[in-house]
């Protein structure tokens, strides 16, 4: 039998029918929706008089518009009426339609891409789609997971399937081991900087190799989360003992005899020896160091101690033009070193870096020090928040002058109103540095939690290992 | 979905790479229905709402355009369908670019906006012609899968055969699946027998 990739295996198991040799009607295990697009999907279902085929396979979670302060006031604490209305629509309509609702006050609430893995909703071998591009995150547990638009989501709710062209596959092998000062975020930023923002265009990317195997599940989630930033459709890591240990005992994971059956199946989920990928890339994991973005697209990323590139020496005219525009927008000059750039704000959180490992990494850096700029932490979920508090991380952050907030997407995209002022420069652990992402005129530098924490202390972009030890 | 066959219309040259979804439809407008000014709102308007004179979409020479010609990575970014819906709301039915954001491309297909991928030299030629002759018509012919404008082209483009048929017939995915609905139930019966913990 011809050796198969992991993606091909999962794909074949979900193919309901195939049209003209290419387009597959793909069965979907779970569909994730947030309040930002829930109403579009429900309105579209109503307009066509369609029912939800399997409500219990649909997860509706409030994350984009929820406030990160004053959660105890409940819905009344949401200043903006329209946001409150859209959260209530998700909660009330979701309940009426019988989908799994994780509302704003639910103890499980958090960012969808944090909540679904940590509650065991995300499982190996699944096809998971979501009304959000960072649905690629869930691939870290060995699932095919990708973002779709609201029309496609409407189709999924009505039919539990989706039309998809045959997947093109790519393997990114990361050799060696990450150095102690490098994080999973630095790794994925390095990969994107190397391959470019269309380096994975439309591909289903499998991350493999010793450096990937050595990552914790939280770290793999960070890597898969940003697959979309190199144009990939999805990113995934073959499930292994770490994956199984992570899932065991989670509320939505199988248990008892089902667990044994599931495990036996999950253990078959890996690319066969000799399987052919449409594209291959190799990265030296041991060469990765602290990285940050300097511009407004994710390929505009350099090591934190490096000078910002000079467009004058860029030979590709369209890339040169993009660099010039980025420099103007970001208010930077070629040759400036990133680690000399002063910042106004620090945001630690998001579906990329809002998990317990991330908060530990940042807390380690700020412990016993004090932030030079306004800074806050928004844990990726209420469960992460509780776990962090149980370890005393909240105290570490508060003592260092950080605000310790509630969970949600928050300042990643500012959809809930947590935004920067025009021109403000932010060290952020989120995933996008697009113009206006954190509010009109905002300037975002994407980096790891350790570097964002170090930047808060230094008041300028910094990496943790370059900080002076506290007096 | 309205069928799409031949579009012969004025086109606007948006000579930039990476027109991302945050620019196409800024996040703060996603809570309300789509409106005509949504498309590239913060590029088109000052903070006080006055149109920015220097932005090409506001140039009266390109008024009435139904096609956008742009560069690499058009629609890169989030899954927000508003980034596509903003286009027809502003009168556009087709985007020609060197490459597209993956989800954006699919969202176009769901909404009758034709995404056309052309090679960089073809896009260069179109952009140049549109700047030299504002108001120039570009003609996008789906049945023959070609783009042409006065002495540019015809340039061939590719599109998945199923998608092409859906565009020509004005069929969206739900209508397409209706024609294939029987196998789903059979698939589910078999699937949940194998994976009972997934029900
Ligand atoms: S945290 Fe940011 S990237 Fe993640 S789902 Fe929320 S808005 Fe999207």
Distance N terminus to C terminus of chain A? 64 Å
What's the number of structural domains of chain A?
A: 3
- Give every kind of bound small molecule, once each: iron/sulfur cluster
Radius of gyration of chain B: 19 Å
Give Rg of chain A in angstroms: 21 Å
The secondary structure category of chain B is alpha/beta
Instruction: Output mean pLDDT of chain A.
Output: 95
CATH architecture of chain B: Alpha-Beta Barrel
Helix content of chain A: 25-40%
Q: What do we call the CATH topology of chain B? A: Aconitase, domain 4
CATH architecture of the largest domain in chain A: 2-Layer Sandwich
Rounded mean pLDDT of chain B is 93
Describe what you observe in this structure.
With 471 residues, chain A is an alpha/beta fold. Chain A folds into three domains: 6-165 and 251-266, Aconitase, domain 3; 168-240 and 271-287, Aconitase, Domain 2 (3-Layer(aba) Sandwich); 291-468, Aconitase, domain 3. Chain A has helices at residues 6-14, 35-47, 81-97, 112-118, 150-159, 184-195, 210-213, 217-225, 241-247, 257-266, 317-330, 350-353, 356-366, 382-390, 393-399, 449-458; strands at 15-19, 23-27, 30-34, 58-61, 100-102, 127-130, 144-147, 161-164, 168-175, 203-208, 234-237, 279-284, 291-293, 301-303, 345-348, 375-377, 403-404, 425-428, 443-446. In chain A, the strands form five sheets. Chain A has a five-stranded parallel β-sheet. Chain A has a five-stranded parallel β-sheet with strand order 17-16-15-18-19. In chain A, strands 11-10-9-12 form a four-stranded parallel β-sheet. In chain A, strand 4, helix 3 (81-97) and strand 5 (100-102) form a beta-alpha-beta unit. In chain A, helix 2 crosses helix 3 (81-97) and helix 13 packs parallel to helix 16. The mean pLDDT of chain A is 95. In chain B, 33% of the residues lie in helices and 17% in strands. The longest helix of chain B is centred in the middle third of the chain and has 13 residues, at 120-132. Chain B is an alpha/beta fold and 199 residues long. Chain B has one domain (6-172): Alpha-Beta Barrel (Aconitase, domain 4). The model of chain B has no long low-confidence stretch (mean pLDDT 93). Chain B has eight helices and seven strands, in the order βααβαβαβαβββααα. Chains A and B meet through strand 1, strand 2, helix 2, helix 3 and helix 5 of A and helix 4, helix 7 and helix 8 of B. Iron/sulfur cluster (SF4) is lined by residues 63-64, 111, 113, 132, 134, 350-351, 409, 412-413, 430-431 of chain A.
């Amino acid at each position: 039998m011809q050796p198969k990739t992991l993606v091909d295996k999962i794909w074949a198991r979900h193919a309901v029918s195939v049209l003209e040799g290419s387009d597959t009607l793909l069965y979907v295990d779970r569909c994730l929706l947030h309040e930002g697009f829930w109403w579009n999907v429900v309105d579209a279902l109503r307009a066509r008089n369609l029912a939800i085929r399997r409500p219990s396979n649909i997860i509706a979670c409030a994350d984009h518009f929820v406030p990160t302060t004053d959660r105890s006031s409940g819905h009344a604490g949401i200043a903006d009426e329209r946001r409150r209305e859209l959260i209530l629509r998700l909660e009330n309509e979701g309940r009426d339609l019988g989908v799994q609702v994780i509302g704003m006050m639910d103890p499980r609430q958090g960012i969808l891409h944090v909540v679904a893995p940590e509650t065991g909703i995300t499982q190996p071998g699944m096809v998971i789609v979501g009304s959000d591009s960072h649905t690629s995150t869930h691939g870290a547990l060995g699932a095919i997971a990708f973002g779709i638009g609201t029309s496609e989501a409407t189709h999924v709710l009505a039919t539990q399937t989706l039309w998809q062209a045959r997947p093109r596959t790519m393997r990114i092998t990361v050799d060696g081991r990450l150095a102690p000062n490098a994080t999973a975020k630095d790794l994925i930023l390095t990969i994107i900087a190397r391959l470019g923002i269309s380096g994975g265009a439309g591909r289903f990317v499998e991350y493999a190799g010793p450096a990937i195997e050595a990552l914790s599940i939280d770290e793999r989630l960070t890597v898969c989360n940003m697959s979309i930033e190199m144009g990939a459709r999805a990113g995934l890591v073959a499930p292994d003992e770490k994956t199984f240990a992570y899932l065991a005992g989670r509320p939505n994971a199988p248990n008892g005899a089902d667990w044994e059956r599931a495990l036996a199946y999950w253990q078959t989920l890996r690319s066969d020896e000799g399987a052919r990928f449409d594209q291959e890339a190799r990265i030296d994991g041991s060469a990765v160091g602290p990285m940050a973005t300097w511009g407004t697209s994710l390929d505009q990323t350099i090591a934190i101690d490096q000078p910002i590139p000079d467009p004058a020496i860029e030979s590709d005219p369209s890339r040169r033009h993009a660099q010039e525009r980025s420099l103007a927008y970001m208010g930077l000059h070629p040759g400036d070193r990133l680690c000399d750039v002063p910042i106004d704000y620090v945001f630690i959180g998001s579906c990329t870096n809002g998990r317990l490992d991330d908060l530990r990494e940042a807390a380690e850096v700020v412990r016993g020090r004090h932030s030079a700029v306004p800074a806050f932490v928004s844990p990726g979920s209420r469960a992460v928040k509780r776990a962090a508090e149980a370890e005393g991380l909240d105290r570490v952050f508060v003592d260092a002058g950080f605000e310790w907030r509630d969970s949600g997407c928050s300042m990643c995209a500012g959809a809930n109103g947590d935004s920067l002022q025009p021109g403000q420069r932010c060290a952020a652990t989120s995933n996008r540095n697009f113009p206006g992402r954190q509010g009109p005129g905002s300037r975002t530098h994407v980096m790891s939690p350790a570097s964002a924490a170090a930047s808060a202390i230094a008041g300028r972009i910094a990496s943790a290992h370059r900080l002076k030890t506290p007096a | 979905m309205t069928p799409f066959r031949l579009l012969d219309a004025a086109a606007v040259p948006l000579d930039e790479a990476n027109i991302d979804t945050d620019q196409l439809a800024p996040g703060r407008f996603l809570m309300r229905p789509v409106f005509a000014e949504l498309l590239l709102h913060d590029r088109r308007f000052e903070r006080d709402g006055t149109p920015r004179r220097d932005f090409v979409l506001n140039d009266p020479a390109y008024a009435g355009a139904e096609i956008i010609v742009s560069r690499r990575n058009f629609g890169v970014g989030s899954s927000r369908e508003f980034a596509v819906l903003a286009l027809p709301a502003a009168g556009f039915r087709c985007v020609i670019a060197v490459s597209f954001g993956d989800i954006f491309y699919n969202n176009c297909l769901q909404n009758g906006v034709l995404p056309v991928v052309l090679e960089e030299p073809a896009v260069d030629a179109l952009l140049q012609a549109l700047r030299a002759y504002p108001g120039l018509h570009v003609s996008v012919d789906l049945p023959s899968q070609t783009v042409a404008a006065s002495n540019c082209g015809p340039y061939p483009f590719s599109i998945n055969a199923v998608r092409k048929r859906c565009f020509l017939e004005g069929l969206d995915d739900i209508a397409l699946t209706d024609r294939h609905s029987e196998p789903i139930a059979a698939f589910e019966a078999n699937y949940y027998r194998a994976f009972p913990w997934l029900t």
